[in-house]
Amino acid sequence: MSSLPVRSGNAPEGATQGNGGRARRRLARVSLGMLGLAAILALWWLGVAMLAGRNALAAQFGPLAALQTFPSLVVDDRLFAHAGASLRRIGVGLACAMAIGVPLGFLIGRVKTLETALSPALQFLRMISPLSWMPIAVMSLGVGDPPVYFLLAFAAVWPIVMSTASGVQHIDARWIQLGESLAATRAEMLWHIYVPGVAAHVLTGVRLAIGVLWIVLVPAEMLGVSSGLGYLILDTRDRLAYSELMAVVLVIGALGFLLDYAARQLYRRFGAQREA
């Protein structure tokens, strides 16, 4: 009499191997990424070491000097307060850009006549550097946060508009026809067809906008504000504290990396599900 196969409660062997393979690939990607960062730090150290032989001031721009100044930067220069001010401005600028860009992109993608009429003007405005508006922003809005918000929103709105319009145009027409055949209201069409259809594209635009925002933020915070990472760059330069300046540069790079990582995770969590 042949024995029946015994079913184990453990995970299938193929699934276990698959999970192990994914873990190894993830570890390999992380290792390669860390290796790339280490190579950049080594090149930075080597370049400063070569310059320091002819100019003693160059040693203050090295990675070791920057890392040594972090405690004083956190305590004396209130690094966290400045970083918080910059992140707050990023949030306000992105919120304003989304409030304008998502509805405008939806209308452009939905109404062909509107797209034809606005496309040349939007392309023209998109190609103007946001920093070109700095004098006009200061003259119109004064000094402080308002001109910074304007510049950030102006910089971030274009990726969101373009991505949203592209998402609307790529919605499967059969879904729209199905909703119309079922006599769906405008609100139902918007919530059940258009929002899921454009979610991935909007999140792509948000990720692109965050990258642009972080680049524009530092010069924008040189418009008479008294806080923020851009202000801290100016302050350390004026005090000739070059090692602290390089430490702030490291902080800017690290925060920008974390923002982009958060945007990528948000896309993987929601955008990829919507596309699937």
UniProtKB/TrEMBL annotation:
Location in the cell: Cell membrane
Gene3D superfamilies: MetI-like
Family: Belongs to the binding-protein-dependent transport system permease family.
Segments crossing the lipid bilayer: 32-53, 90-109, 121-142, 148-168, 189-220, 240-259
Superkingdom field: Bacteria
Source organism: Paraburkholderia lycopersici
Protein's recorded name: NitT/TauT family transport system permease protein
Gene Ontology biological-process annotations: alkanesulfonate transmembrane transport; cellular response to sulfur starvation
Any matching Pfam family: BPD_transp_1
Membrane-protein topology: Multi-pass membrane protein
InterPro entries in alphabetical order: MetI-like, MetI-like_sf
